[in-house]
Amino acid sequence: MKIGLMFRDISTSLFQRPVTERYPYERKGTPNRLRGKLKWNLESCTGCGLCGLDCPANAIQVHVLDRKEKRFILEYHADRCTFCAQCVHSCRQGCIDLSNTDWELAALDGDVFRFIFGVQANVDEFLVGESSADTESPTSE
Predict the structure, then answer these.
(1) Domain-by-domain residue ranges, the chain?
(2) Among residues 56, 66, 106, 121, which one has the fewest Cβ atoms lying within 10 Å of its Cβ?
């Protein structure tokens, strides 16, 4: 490396402002096509489960509680998601979208990456059934 080039770089950096962005304090707008956290519209969803079947990362599961009464929930694991938008393309009703505003998903605890969408009564019923299945001990005969 030539000494002259090094001194030129040093002198220009002394008199120029840094180009570093002050990220959490100064935020820029996000692009419209940014793929962030999954959004789900319950009213237009039919519970077909194509989104979960086509998900290459197995990040989406549709749990049907009662198909006649249209009672189902969507379980989304953001830590598994590759944000490929295959679920968006597979959904025939257009009820799944990837948010371009909710994209900051960093956390230290893995439990915060599990999202359960649906009517609160149905979610509570699902969680109660899930916790009782975890606490059941196998019977030996």
Answers:
(1) 31-135
(2) 106
> What's the confidence (pLDDT) of residue 132?
67
Residue 114 identity (one-letter amino acid): R
Tokens for 62? 């549709």
Question: pTM of the prediction?
Answer: 0.73
Long-range contacts of residues 2-7, Cβ cutoff 8 Å, at least 24 apart: none
Indicate the SS3 state at residue 72. Answer: strand
Residues 6+ apart with CB under 8 A from 6: none
Looking at residue 15, its amino acid is: F
Indicate whether 51 pLDDT > 60: yes
The CATH-assigned architecture of domain 31-135 is: 2-Layer Sandwich (3.30)
Q: Are strands 60-66 and 71-77 parallel, antiparallel or unpaired?
A: antiparallel
Rounded to 5 degrees, what are φ and ψ at 110? -75, -15
Strongest mean pLDDT among 46-55, 106-115, 131-140: 46-55
